[in-house]
Amino acid sequence: MYVTRIDFFDPGKTADSGQAFRIHRIDDTHVETVALGRYLQISSMPEKNTYAFSCSREEFESVWRDYLDIGTDYDAVVKGIDENDGFLRAAAEYGYGIRILKQEPFETIISYIISQRRSIPSITTCVDRLSETAGSRIELPELKEPFVKPLKNDYYAFPTIRQAAKLTSSQLDRIGAGYRTPYILSAVRDFDSGKLIPEKMGELNDDELYEVLMSMYGVGVKVANCSMLFGFHRVGRFPVDVWIKRIEDTRYNGHFPAERYPGTAGILQQFMFYYIRNL
User: Fold this and answer.
1) Fewer C-beta within 10 Å: the chain N or C terminus?
2) Helices (H), the chain
3) 279, pLDDT greater than 90
């Protein structure tokens, strides 16, 4: 167990923000996530802004600190909001503590291909079934107080590229991929063949990365921008779904001025998304 203080961090709000599909509230003070082939539980402690993590300090520093984006000054992001934009300031206040998780690119791209025209619970179910079908079982850490019983008995890592390459159309149909099945298989082939390499994609600038993602079969504007924001931590991207479009239409005359926030628009998008869905 490792206990530390983190400002501007709310595990529950981050779990509920819709950016990742394998992070969940257990109760009011506990959150669990499966990421990077590991299981992590986070317990909110009685002391303000203090959290216990079900891992060693070494694992936290080498894996989870970066994944949770602890190094970014989110208070500075909020301070940069236009003082005349009352809606955005209210959204940032309501979403205080949400951080943009640095998710694994391959998992993020496949998950957002799955996400098309689906609710978050449906996406979560499909991603979990995909992991159970092709991923490796995760050995859970020993969980004592202040941690609680996990939501499930068994957890599986999202499949690696090599594991995913063994998936068949019938398997994807059985897990509920539906019309997205050929898109998933095409994406997996692109990565397994070496046509796409996550590390090389990460070296591209935003325009180049967007072009590569848009060239993938079944990937449109929203999936490309979500993959960039959540899988490559391009926090200047501003994905637009039905919720954000509603905000744009009702609050910003059809267009949110993302260009005013070139390096933080994606963070602000999460505050807005979380706020509008909970109003």
Assistant:
1) C
2) 11-16, 57-59, 65-67, 74-79, 86-94, 105-114, 120-134, 161-164, 169-174, 181-192, 198-202, 206-214, 221-226, 242-251, 265-278
3) no
